[in-house]
Structures are given as structure tokens and as C-alpha cells.
Amino acid sequence: MVLRIEAKWEIPYVHSAGEHATKFFEALKEKKILGVKCPKCQRVLVPPRAFCERCYVDTDEWVEVKDEGVIETVTINYARFTGLPDPPYAVGIIKLDGADTGMLAYLGGVDLTDWKKAHEKLKVGTRVKAVWKDRPEGRITDILYFKPVEE
Amino acid sequence: MRRAAVIGVGQTKFRTRRDDKTHPELTREAVSRALEHAGITMDDVDAFVFGTMDPFDGINCPDRWSSTAAGFGKPFMKISTGGTTGLTTGIAAYQHVASGLFDVVVAVCTQRVGENVDAQPVLNTAVDPIYERHSGVGAISVAAIQATVHMQKYGTTEEQMAWVSVKDHENALKNPYAHIKKKIGVEDVLSSPVVSSPLKLYECCPRSDGSVAVIFASEEKAEQIRDDPAWILAESSISDSYFVGDRPDLAVWDSLSIAGRRLYRLAGIDDPKKDIDVAELYSPFTIQEILELEALGFAEKGEGAKLAEEGVTFVDGDMPTNPSGGVLCTNPIGATGLVRLGEASLQVMGEASNQVDGAEVALAHAWGGTLQFHALMLVSSHKKLRR
Amino acid sequence: MKVGIVGIGITHFGVHEEPFYNVAYTAARKALEDAEMERHEIDNVVLGGYDVSVGRTISNMYTAPAAGGYLKDEIRVSDDAAYALALAYMRIKSGIFDVAMVLGYGHCSETPIELVELLSLDPFFHRDLGISYQMSYAMQSYAYKMKYGVEDETAAEVVVRARKRASKYEYAHVREEVSVDDVLSSEMVIFPLRKLELPPWSDGCVALILAEETIARRINPEPIWVEGLGWNTENYYMGSRDLAELSSTRKAGEMAYRMAGCDAKSVEAVEIMDLTPYHHLMALEALGFAADGKGGELIESDFPTNSSGGALCTNAHGTTGLFLTANLALQIRDGCDRGISHAVSGYAAQNSIVTILGV
Description:
Strand order of the largest sheet of chain C: 3-2-4-7-1-8-11-10-9
Order of helices and strands of chain C: EHEHEHEHHHHEEEHEHEHHHEE
Shape of chain C: globular
CATH architecture of the domain at 3-112 and 201-219 in chain C: 3-Layer(aba) Sandwich
Strand content of chain C: 15-25%
Structural class of chain C: alpha/beta
Low-confidence stretches of chain C: none
CATH topology of the domain at 3-112 and 201-219 in chain C: Peroxisomal Thiolase, Chain A, domain 1
Structural class of chain B: alpha/beta
Distance between the termini of chain B: 22 Å
Helix content of chain B: 25-40%
Helix content of chain C: 25-40%
Distance between the termini of chain C: 14 Å
CATH superfamily of the domain at 4-117 and 207-225 in chain B: Thiolase/Chalcone synthase
Strand order of the largest sheet of chain B: 3-2-4-7-1-8-11-10-9
CATH architecture of the domain at 4-117 and 207-225 in chain B: 3-Layer(aba) Sandwich
Oligomer: heterotrimer
Shape of chain B: globular
């Protein structure tokens, strides 16, 4: 037998969001989702960022986008991983109305027990709307999840 | 451009844990095998390039400890680029030689994912803590969201994806260094538990401990050292934007197509299907081999899923892919890309454990980030592409 | 074929409110503006910086696009960004690339770097002992001090001069001037190092644009040429080496001088990554500017070291070395003919890299 030593990394971090992202989180408190418009390619980027990676210019025109959009893709996680949310949980990319890029978010409001049935309800192209926390705190988790809109 | 070649490859056996050795001892195992394969000694080596993904091993910058087995007293450089690390380490080592600054350079990658109780939380820390980390997204979920779109857009089936896994598992049985060695059938894959829908357990890679070393030499040195070096024809890498939501269409890997086209242009390849004999692709998840085959021109868009099912990508097929058993059976994350290059080199040297008959040109690939990076290298038994 | 620096972008160093990737973008933009170039004229990005220090596992995911790397070739060294410059040089020298954006990032204000560095020690022999990064440099300082009888006042004088120079360098982090008395009366933190003899932890980014000779001349009639590069590594086990000397720096210097075809005599400016005042002296000796143990004599003279104030005044873990190289490049632009910059990484200066720039 060889010696095995247990170790754990606990490194505290205080991450600064910067001015752009801070504006986005402030708006979340009012249940609003903001994007930035690139002055060059005119794309509305959500989540907002300080520069357009493609055009390489500063972005400073703020645009409010809808808290509704379509599913671009989805997966449901059924495995348990240390420190990650309890399974099952669904994550997808949502293209919000008024945005040109997708945003990573939870999907919910659907029974996830059977993955095939759940995928039927969360098909690519399905319209979804944000379900908000009652009292938003200005964090990304203020949007609890996106759920399919009943047509 | 100064020509260079791979003159030696060394791997350790890849396992869930390698309790028998420390980090530098594992590095030494791979480096010693590569030196032995090349028939040279440590004194012949001018410089080392070391690759690893830092947090996986529970040691930050483990290269500092591991350099006692690779490079101490010599120029030593550390590369880390995410999942592409193994291959970008190879690319950097190649550039050390191509620049004319060095003649013989060892690229070595050691990764001990097994020291980590669970790899997915580490992968999750790659995700932005401001906007996205809470979502619990790791490598499996990003592959799964590709699968969802590919299935819906092109009608790719669970069975077709399962065939990729069956093929890789069959190949791994012949590879003495492979981690997972188990004969499985399509039914086994389909009945394994869903991990991240639609991907099932047998469609996902293991986490492996191990090390790999690949030695590069200048043209003159390579010819002195061995008769059958694997000549580097070209290399290419690419970065996309950061946010995964920015990808225009997740059903195609267009950034890989761009990198592939650049690689083919550099190597003078017109028709990859004809000009390339074997590919070692970074496909830790079944769907990714399908996307990669399409992006690299081995299949039309939406047709990649048929290749394994129809036997095309099996070792005796027209486009053998991952004859080593691939990443699906062995994944020492930051070392994996260099394993691809090592296996591709062995194929064109005619020494691979699961040899493709008459392989002259082999492709090595790796991807990294949240579908953000790709790296590619092309090796050949000839100095230039022969058609 | 030569490789030249044609664009220099340095951000303010200190504490940044913006995340490291936005600071990186600022540095890269400044370098492009300095070179009067556009992003599309760059064909690859070479990054340098650490993951755990900035709290992201693959930190180049953020800095590659920030450096202008969207759909371009990308690579990153996980070490001081001075290594990124060496790699960029090789990528161009080999003929594979023409124009590289070299970007170094350091962001120390968000996490205790001492803890991050402690985790670089193996979990068996060293980590449990709780030897901090600074302690390894202190042990080295003490070994050197004892071997050559270096006085406390000499070390203090190094700090005084560093602060004086930093006070005039707009990008430096700590810019308040101090006296020898201030240094000697400051609290003993890690024997033999006093509070004012320790470097700060800084945030900031540096971008340098490197180009192949003919292209470089098109961009700028007077590029700053990369004349020599050398790097080397020492034994990880501190007990197995002579801590009183910087042998990896010595070997790195020898390689760089050989490549540049020159020696210390022809060097007009020196930028040293002095994580302690003793390391300032040790590096000067290892690079051939003074005999062993005689580095202190240079301090009394007007020898032009660290016009930036050095690491003692600005230390952004991951790009401190490239910060010094950038300042060296500015000096060469201002009329200096040849200079040398130096960087170290790892416990007790395990790794060293040396860059020689000239006209």
C-alpha cells in the first residue's frame, strides 16, 4: 500500500464584474435583461461585454431585450458531481428576443424524470419565458429558469 | 521554414489512478520511453516543453515539481491552453525546433485527473464566475448540447452515436496503454445510464492518470537518428469567442472547419478524404467525433453519423478514426492532445498498436474551452505530401 | 531574419475594478494604437499568465479574444508572460507566423496569491510545512546575505532607488519615495526581509506586438529588435541547490548573450525582476554585471537598473517579467542601444528567462 493524503483546495476569491456587467446585474434587480449593441456589426450581445470580440471595438450602447426567447439547444444532467447542482437539472442556450447571441440558462417547468419526454417539451426552437425570483438580488440566479410558453 | 519531425513517442499506461508513482516519476516514465524509442539520451535533448492543465492534479503548476524529471538544467517552457494543451504543447515544441533555436526538443504532458475526487467541478471553474458558473456546466453538458441540436437538425440517432463508442472500445482492446478495455455492443451503450441527455455513460470518456512524451528533431538530426521519422507537414490552431451562446450553429463545428482549411492549405491537401489516411481526433463524447469528421471534410454536413455505423471509421474502413481507442477510452485531459499526436506519429512510422495498413499521412486534433479552441497537426512518413 | 517589437501597450498597474480580461483588452488596444495597426493585421496571439491566480481554470478562454484572438491561432504559456514573448519569437522566426500579439496578464487583488503559490508545492514533502512563496525568497536572500556579508543598508538602498525610479514611471504600482531609515525601521515580516523590502501584489496587463523583420520595418521604421533570449530551470528541491546564487538566471543569461552575440559590457539598460532587494543584487551578478557578492557596489554607482522601479514596486504575478521587458522596449525607443530584461518564477527563483532587446 502506498500513502494517500487527502487534500482540499479552498481558495477565496472576490471577483470584480467590471462596469459593464455591473450594469446588467443592476437591471436584473428590476427584472430587466440588458444587452450591448456593437457599434460596428450591430449585433446585440447578451450577456453584455465591454468589447465585441469579432469587431474589436468598445461597446456602449445599451439595449433592453425581452425575457422571452427560443431554445437553441438543451441538455439535462442526470449525474451527481461534487459541488454541482443536484440532478436532474436542465441547462440550455436561449436566444432572447432582441438579442443576436444566446445565453446559457437553466430550463424548467417541465418534468425531467424521463429525458426523452422532457426533450420533447424542450425542443430546439421552443419559445420560453423567464421565471424570476420574487425578490431579485442582482445576480444571474435571479432568473430561476426559462419555461416553455403555452401557445 | 525549418523542417522537423517526430523521432520518438513514449506513453505510460493510463489508469484511473497511478498510486505507484509521484508526478515527476510518472513524467519520467513517459520521457524515458520516448528517449528509448528514439534511441537517444537525455544529453541529446536541448529543451523541454511541458503541458498540463493546472488545477486537475491538485498541484498548481505541477510542472515545477515534474521538471525534475524533464528539463531541469535546460530551457523549459510550460504550456496550458485547456483541452488543447497536449497538442499546443506539441506545436510549441515543434516551433522550438522550426525556429532554429533548438535541434532536439521533448514535449511532455502529465495529468493526474485521478487525484481529483471529481473532474467536472474543476471544469466548471473554467466557466465565468460572473455570468455562467452557477449553471453547473462542464465538458459533458457542452457536448450534450451539441448532440441535441445535431439529432434534431440532421436526424442523427442514438444508435448511430452508439456505433462510435463500439468502434472506439474495440480499438482500445489492441492498445496496451489504453485506459478502458472492454468489448461492448450497441445495446450496451444504449442501455447505459443517461449522464447528460442525450449522452449516455458509454458515450463519455473516463478520467485518466498518465503521461506522454513526444520528441521533435530538426531535419538533419531526425535523419541521423532514425530512418522512419514522422515529418510534420503543418499545424494550425484557433480560438473562437468566449461565450458558448455566441456560436452561430451548434450543429456544425465551424471554427474547426476554419482551422482545418488553414491546415490543409499549408500542407497542400485538396481532398482530406483521399490525402489523409488516419485521424486521431479529440472526441471524449461520441457526438464530437461525428461533428469533427464533418468539420474536417471527411463527411458532408449531417452525414458524419453514418461513418461509424457503416464501418468507414473502423480500422479497416476507408477513413480509420481513433484506432488507438481514442479519447472515449483514455482521457488524461491536458495530456490527451499529445497522445493524439503520438499515436498519429506511430501510425505513419508503421509502429502503432492498431496499425492502419500503409498509413502515410495522419491527422491529430484536440479541442478545448467551452467549444472555443482547436489545435491540429499533420504528420507524414514523407517530407512532403505525396499524391 | 530578425523579429522586432512594433507596438507597446501597458495598462496602469495597481488595483483594477475591471475584470482581468477587460484590462487585457485595454492593453492590447493600446499596443495596436501604438503600432497604428488593426486587429486583422495580427495573425496569432501568444498569452502568458496563470489560471489559479485569476480564479479561472482556462484563463486564456477570456484573454484570447481580449488579445484580438477571435478566429486566430492562439497559445498560452502558464508562466510569466516573458516566456510568451520567447514563444512568439520562435513562432515568427520559424516562418510560421508574421505578426504576433503577446499579452501578459496578472490580477492579484482578487485572491491571496501566497495561498495559490503554496498549492504549487507537492502535497507530500513541502506543502504541509506551510512554506510561503516569500519565505523561499527570504531563505535565498539570507543565504546570499550571509555568504557575502551583504549589509542591511545595502538592501535598503536598493529599495530607496527602486521607489525613486518608480515615482517617475507612470505605470508603476507603488510610487511613494522612502528613505533608508524608513526601510530599516519597517516591520520585519519574513526574516531577513522587512515590510518595505517585499514587493506588492498588482493588477495589470502588458501587450507587445512582434513582427517579422520586413513587416516590422513597414509598420515602424525603427523597430526594437529581439536580439537574444535565454531561459532555464533549476531543481525544484530547494535543499538540493545552492540558494546563494541564481543559477537558472546565470544559464538563461549565457544563452541569451550567446544568441545576441554580446556580453554584459555592451548592455546599457537592465530590468530585473527583483522580488527582494537581495535578488536585485544576485541577478546583477548572475547576468555578469558584477562579480559574485559585489552587486552592492553597482548600487552606489549610476548603473542604469530598473528605471521602472522593478518588481519591488510593481508585481503582477504572471506578467511582472513582461512588464519589465515593455519598459526596456520604451527605453530603447528613447535612445538606448541595447538592454536586458529578466524574470523569474517558482519558489526561490526556480525558473528564469532573459530577453535582450536592441536597435
